[in-house]
Amino acid sequence: MWYEFIKRAIDVIGSLLLGIFFFPIAVVTSIAIKLDSPGSVFADTPRRVGKGGTLFRIYKFRSMIVNAHKKLRTDPKFAKLYAEYKRNSYKLKEDPRVTHFGKFIRKHSVDEIPQLLNVLRGEMSLVGPRPYYEDELTQQQKKYPHTKNMVAVVLSAKPGITGYWQVSGRSEVNFDKRIKMDADYVSKRSILFDIGILLKSPWAMISGKGAV
């Protein structure tokens, strides 16, 4: 009980302070996105799975072409890419849908800044498991059936902007390892553990290690 109360207080205060700090970067990023490619400043991504399996819209700066996620799943010219996407635990090393400026903001996690709004709305936390796509969880549990119990553990907590696996390798690990790290985090989470992850996050953001 005390953990949840303190965590929420840290989320609200932290997201407000980070919002003020990142506001100039967000403005510059918005202008750069508009100059780089046509379309909205924000990504039109499918909803993510939150705590208890609740679906919610995640806010991100757009780093891809318009309708990138829909086109990947429905456009015949992306059929091979989609097969590779599913085969590689819903990650792509080389993604032709990513814009020029999008490569930079994805590498340094600048596209994640708008998720501070999700934290203020109570849909996410500053620290938590990765917010997965609904079809990603369905397909990956078929590929890795032993992960079903771990998925249930992960969905018992709010997803986070940053988390244990992000500061420990990020996109370099496959789904089965990533979901285990997320489940391990949920099982042993504490305020000190969260603070440790938050302190490691700036370097992960700056270095861009493992990001795709």
Report on this structure.
The protein is mainly alpha-helical and 212 residues long. 53% of the residues lie in helices and 5% in strands. It has a two-stranded antiparallel sheet with strand order 1-2. Helix 1 (2-36) runs antiparallel to helix 4 (100-107) and helix 7 crosses helix 8 (175-188). It has one domain (2-207).
Give the gist of this structure:
53% of the residues lie in helices and 5% in strands.
What profile does the largest beta sheet have? Answer: 2 strands, antiparallel
Strand order of the largest sheet: 1-2
What is the CA-atom radius of gyration, in angstroms? 17 Å
Give the total of beta strands: 4
Which structural traits does this protein have?
212 residues, mainly alpha, two-stranded antiparallel ribbon, two-stranded parallel sheet, 9 helices, 5% strand
